[in-house]
C-alpha cells in the first residue's frame, strides 16, 4: 500500500493504492475543522467499495495538522484477501497516516493568499 501526495496551494491530495488491482474506490474529503465526508463507488459486482476504512484512518491521524483542505482517494484490492491481511492493512494505513503527519510538520505551506474583489468591486 502506498500514498502518493500532491500539494495544491495549501491543499493536499492523497492517492492511497495497492494490492493486485489498484483503483479509486472511495473519495474522502476533510479539513482541520470539518467532518470527514466519503463517497463510495460501486465495484464490478455492484457492492460499494470499502476503501474508505483506510482513508478515514489516515484522515483522522492528519486532520489536526492540515493547512487547507484534503482529498483522499483510496483503492486497494488484494485478491482473496484473508482476515489477517485485512487487519494488517489497517496497521499499514495507520503507519501511512503517521508518516504523512510527520511530513506535514516538516513542510512549508506558505503561499500567497488569493485576492478577492470587495463587496463594492466588480470584475471589469
Description:
The protein is of the alpha+beta class and 124 residues long. The protein has helices at residues 52-62, 83-106; strands spanning 2-8, 11-19, 26-30, 37-40, 70-77. It has a single domain (2-106), classed as Ribosomal Protein S5, domain 2. The chain has a 5-stranded mixed β-sheet with strand order 1-2-5-3-4, with helices on one face. Strand 3 and strand 4 (37-40) form a beta hairpin. The longest helix has 24 residues, at 83-106. The radius of gyration is 17 Å and the shape is elongated. The model has no long low-confidence stretch (mean pLDDT 95). InterPro entries: LpdD_chaperone-like. It holds the Pfam family PAC_bac. It comes from Companilactobacillus mindensis DSM 14500.
What string gives the helices and strands in order? Answer: EEEEHEH
The side-by-side strand order for the widest beta sheet comes to 1-2-5-3-4
Q: Assembly state here?
A: single chain
CATH class: Alpha Beta
Rg computed from alpha carbons, rounded to a whole number of angstroms? 17 Å
**What is the tally of beta strands?**
5
Shape: elongated
Terminal CA distance reads 49 Å
Enumerate how many helices there are, as a single number.
Answer: 2
How many domains is the backbone divided into? Answer: 1
* Main beta-sheet annotation: 5 strands, mixed
The third-level CATH topology is Ribosomal Protein S5, domain 2
Amino acid at each position: 500500500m502506498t500514498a502518493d501526495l500532491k500539494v495544491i496551494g495549501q491543499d493536499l491530495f492523497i492517492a492511497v493504492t495497492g494490492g493486485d488491482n489498484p483503483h479509486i474506490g472511495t473519495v474522502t474529503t476533510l479539513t482541520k475543522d470539518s467532518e470527514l465526508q466519503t463517497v463510495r463507488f460501486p465495484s464490478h459486482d455492484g457492492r460499494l467499495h470499502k476503501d474508505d476504512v483506510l482513508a478515514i484512518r489516515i484522515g483522522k491521524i492528519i486532520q489536526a495538522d492540515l493547512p487547507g483542505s484534503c482529498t483522499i482517494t483510496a483503492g486497494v484490492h488484494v485478491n482473496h484477501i484473508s482476515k489477517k491481511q485485512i487487519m494488517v492493512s489497517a496497521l499499514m494505513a495507520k503507519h501511512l497516516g503517521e508518516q504523512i503527519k510527520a511530513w506535514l510538520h516538516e513542510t512549508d505551506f506558505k503561499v500567497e493568499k488569493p485576492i478577492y474583489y470587495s463587496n463594492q468591486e466588480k470584475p471589469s
